[in-house]
């Protein structure tokens, strides 16, 4: 057995998988905020399963930068050490990955039915491919090559948000008053959905509630969701302009999983594309890249497994 884990700002997903298999066993989801560190999460998982033998190999997709044998989970303020994971649990091999690095590799194992095309079904080339994932935070990565597998994880979600009108400049001031980072992540994430609702209507609601109201056609919630998709389109175009993803652009993340039904409606698809084509000068270039939504519920787990398989070859 191999342990595969996706440790995110909101949820931590852990599962077991047999060697060379693609099927997850005993998948469990924990609320990350209920734990003080990753070691408690892994310990709880093993305790819940009452495992008699700990897996030799563990692969962790982590929501933050991974440098050498350490990682820092940005939205949890957790530090993760490869050495400590080995020491605490007796793993023989531990692989630490940025979660978007892992997510990008999911493309190697995804089925066609797990990808929803929004624009331009044909790709110019196989690579590079660009990935963006609004969730608790905002992740981006670029798959440069599949053979040898080369993926550039980034921290592009922390680039400063670029407002284009008075409404958005005032939103930045709103964030500043909250002493928040003035980044794209705070304009395009789960937390951002709550912030936009508060900014527009002076009422604090969790993102899940805003999404629920939008499904019920509540006009205030729909305004927030449309703003989210417009900004998503703009951020995707930025990603496209600095990566030139001739292999396509892939959208996923916890927020997209919650909102994917809206992207199947023409009205919301048009809002996203309007944001994507905001740069009139480069509209022709942007039109060359396909846009796709990953429908698989756990792409980071799948991608972590793909990277493990790739390293074992």
List keywords for this structure.
single chain, alpha/beta, Hexokinase, domain 1, 2 domains, six-stranded mixed β-sheet, 40% helix, Bacterial_glucokinase, glucokinase activity, EC 2.7.1.2, ATPase_NBD
What do you see in this structure?
Pfam families: Glucokinase (PF02685). InterPro entries: ATPase_NBD (IPR043129), Bacterial_glucokinase (IPR050201), Glucokinase (IPR003836). It comes from Thermodesulfobacterium geofontis (strain OPF15). One of its GO terms (biological process) is glycolytic process. The chain has 313 residues and is an alpha/beta fold. It folds into two domains: 2-98, Nucleotidyltransferase, domain 5; 111-294, Hexokinase, domain 1. 40% of the residues lie in helices and 23% in strands. It has helices at residues 38-49, 82-89, 99-105, 166-177, 190-201, 207-215, 219-243, 254-263, 266-276, 283-286, 299-312; strands at residues 2-7, 11-17, 25-31, 57-62, 66-67, 70-73, 78-81, 93-98, 115-119, 129-134, 138-145, 150-153, 249-251, 291-294. A hairpin with a 4-residue loop joins strand 11 and strand 12 (150-153).
